[in-house]
C-alpha cells in the first residue's frame, strides 16, 4: 500500500477526522453573503451613523438605554474629532531655526505639510515687518509650518537686495518664492496682502475672496484714467478756442 501524499485533499480529510485540522468551511454563495451583510448592518444602531448635530435633533426618538449608549458614543466622537484637530493643528507659531536645521525642518518636513521659511536680517526693517506678519499668520493657519532663519546661517554672502526672502516648500519641493522687497509686497506690505500671496502658491487656504491689493490698483488705474480723460478734454477745449 502506497503512503498518502500530504498534499492531497484525502490526507487533509484524515487530519480533520482526528481533529488536527479545523472542519472544512463550506463555500457561501453570493446570496447568503449578502443576507449576512444586511443582517450585520441592521444590527448597527441608527445613532452610530449620525453626526453630533443630528443626534441633538433626534434625542426624543431614543429610549433611556439608547441615550446612555449615545452619551458614550458622543464622548468617543468628540475625542476622535479633538484628536484629528490636534493632529492637523500642530504648529501655530513662527519658530526660529538655524542653518544646520534647514534640511530637517524644511526640505525633509512631514509629508504633505506646507513650510513657509523666511530668510532675514534683523537690520532690515522690511524683514522685521514680514516677521510680524508671519507670526500672526502662523497662529491663523496652524496646519502650516512657519519658520524663520537668519540668512547668514543658511547662505553665506547673501545680498541685502534679495531680502526679505520667503520660500514655500512642500514634500521637499519649492512651491513658491518671493525674493526682495518688491516681490514680497513692498515696504507698506499689509498682513492681508501677504496672506493672499501665500495662498496663491498653496501654502495656506485663505478665506479672503479677492486680492486685497486689487482695490488699491483699481483706484490707481481709475485715477490715471480720469486724469487722462481730463487732460484730453482740456486739450480739446484748447484746440477749439484756438480755432475760434
From TrEMBL:
<dbReference type="InterPro" id="IPR036249">
    <property type="entry name" value="Thioredoxin-like_sf"/>
</dbReference>
<dbReference type="Pfam" id="PF02114">
    <property type="entry name" value="Phosducin"/>
</dbReference>
<dbReference type="GO" id="GO:0001675">
    <property type="term" value="P:acrosome assembly"/>
</dbReference>
<dbReference type="InterPro" id="IPR051498">
    <property type="entry name" value="Phosducin-like_chap/apop_reg"/>
</dbReference>
<dbReference type="GO" id="GO:0006457">
    <property type="term" value="P:protein folding"/>
</dbReference>
<dbReference type="InterPro" id="IPR024253">
    <property type="entry name" value="Phosducin_thioredoxin-like_dom"/>
</dbReference>
<dbReference type="GO" id="GO:0007288">
    <property type="term" value="P:sperm axoneme assembly"/>
</dbReference>
<dbReference type="GO" id="GO:0005783">
    <property type="term" value="C:endoplasmic reticulum"/>
</dbReference>
<feature type="domain" description="Phosducin">
    <location>
        <begin position="34"/>
        <end position="203"/>
    </location>
</feature>
<comment type="similarity">
    <text>Belongs to the phosducin family.</text>
</comment>
<protein>
    <submittedName>
        <fullName>Phosducin like 2</fullName>
    </submittedName>
</protein>
Amino acid at each position: 500500500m502506497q503512503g498518502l501524499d500530504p498534499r492531497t485533499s484525502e490526507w487533509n480529510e484524515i487530519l480533520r477526522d482526528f481533529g488536527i485540522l479545523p472542519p472544512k468551511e463550506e463555500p457561501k454563495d453570493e446570496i447568503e453573503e449578502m443576507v449576512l451583510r444586511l443582517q450585520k448592518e441592521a444590527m448597527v444602531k441608527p445613532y452610530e451613523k449620525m453626526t453630533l448635530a443630528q443626534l441633538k435633533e433626534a434625542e426624543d426618538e431614543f429610549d433611556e438605554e439608547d441615550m446612555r449608549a449615545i452619551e458614550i458614543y458622543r464622548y468617543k466622537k468628540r475625542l476622535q474629532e479633538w484628536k484629528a484637530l490636534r493632529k492637523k493643528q500642530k504648529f501655530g507659531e513662527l519658530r526660529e531655526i538655524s542653518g544646520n536645521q534647514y534640511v530637517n525642518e524644511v526640505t525633509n518636513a512631514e509629508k504633505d505639510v506646507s513650510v513657509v521659511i523666511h530668510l532675514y536680517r534683523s537690520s532690515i526693517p522690511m524683514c522685521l515687518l514680514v516677521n510680524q506678519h508671519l507670526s500672526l499668520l502662523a497662529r491663523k493657519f496652524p496646519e502650516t509650518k512657519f519658520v524663520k532663519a537668519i540668512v547668514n546661517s543658511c547662505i553665506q554672502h547673501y545680498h541685502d537686495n534679495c531680502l526679505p526672502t520667503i520660500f514655500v516648500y512642500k514634500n521637499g519641493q519649492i512651491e513658491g518664492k518671493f525674493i526682495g522687497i518688491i516681490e514680497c509686497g513692498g515696504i507698506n506690505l499689509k498682513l492681508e496682502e501677504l496672506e493672499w500671496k501665500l495662498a496663491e502658491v498653496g501654502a495656506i487656504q485663505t478665506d479672503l475672496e479677492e486680492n486685497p491689493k486689487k482695490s488699491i490698483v483699481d483706484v490707481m488705474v481709475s485715477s490715471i484714467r480720469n486724469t487722462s480723460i481730463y487732460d484730453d478734454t482740456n486739450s480739446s477745449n484748447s484746440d477749439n478756442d484756438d480755432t475760434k
